[in-house]
Amino acid sequence: MEYVGVVGRRAERLYRQIGTGFAFVLFGVGGVVLSVTLFPFYCLFYSDPQERAGIAQRTVRETWRLFVWLLVNMRLIDLELEGVDILRQETGTLIIANHPSLIDIVLIISLMERAQCVVKEGVWKNPFMRGVVKATNYIPNLGDPERTLRECVAALKSGNNLVIFPEGTRTKPGKQVRLERGFANIAIRAGAPIRIVTVCCNPPMLRKGEKWYESPVRRACFRVRVGERIETAEVFDSRLPARCARDLTAQITKRFEEVIAHEPA
């Protein structure tokens, strides 16, 4: 019986490895299909760039929602959501989240209306994703911090939500939370509220440095929890913006640590 159980677990893990590979291929192909079909179609019928980007964002949200549904129903992951109705009602809000897994941004944006995010240079130049990030007016991080800051502030002031991972990279398990101050400077300059979102993945999956086929022994459960909203006006002092950014970063770092420490195993 024990042997049968071991074989069953190995077969289930092999299924998840193959399924994950299929999902990644589907995700990449889907990005290309959108880039050569719907997005050019939008250019023909919508002359206003902001309106066109908004429609592209809704298209990506629904596509990624379908992708997450597929992951769950193929039994590649489990998903638990808490307070996500709040996200659908946000406008002009800076959403900050920890980043334990490669698919965190897909999970979060699939739950939101009007949302942009900051994408690194590698994604901006990726042939499978380039058309998507351009059509949706996602903000590139190409080594010009001031330009990125201006575009993030403009996005928030226009009413879009903006998703940022303030650690700057995927969260390292067991390491102390270290947030960069960029998100605080953006929120202060835009006068935008901050909403904290935490993502927990147990057992860990698709961490930084891991390959897609390195599936955990058992199916991973992702928990997305929408936390508190912080009004930046409460900490803002126009005479000392740098100090405000530092204090805000320290305040939110502490809250991230508290929330993540109490996540169930």
TrEMBL record:
- Show the taxonomic lineage: Bacteria, Pseudomonadati, Pseudomonadota, Alphaproteobacteria, Micropepsales
The organism sits in which domain of life? Answer: Bacteria
Which Pfam family, any one of them, does this sequence belong to?
Acyltransferase
For this chain, one GO molecular function annotation is: acyltransferase activity
Keyword set for this entry?
Answer: Acyltransferase, Membrane, Transferase, Transmembrane, Transmembrane helix
Pathway the protein takes part in:
Lipid metabolism
Q: Where is the Phospholipid/glycerol acyltransferase domain?
A: 93-199
Native source organism of the sequence: Rhizomicrobium electricum
Q: Write down what this protein is called.
A: Lysophospholipid acyltransferase family protein
Per its UniProt record, what CDD domains does this chain match?
Answer: LPLAT_AGPAT-like
Segments traversing the membrane: 21-42
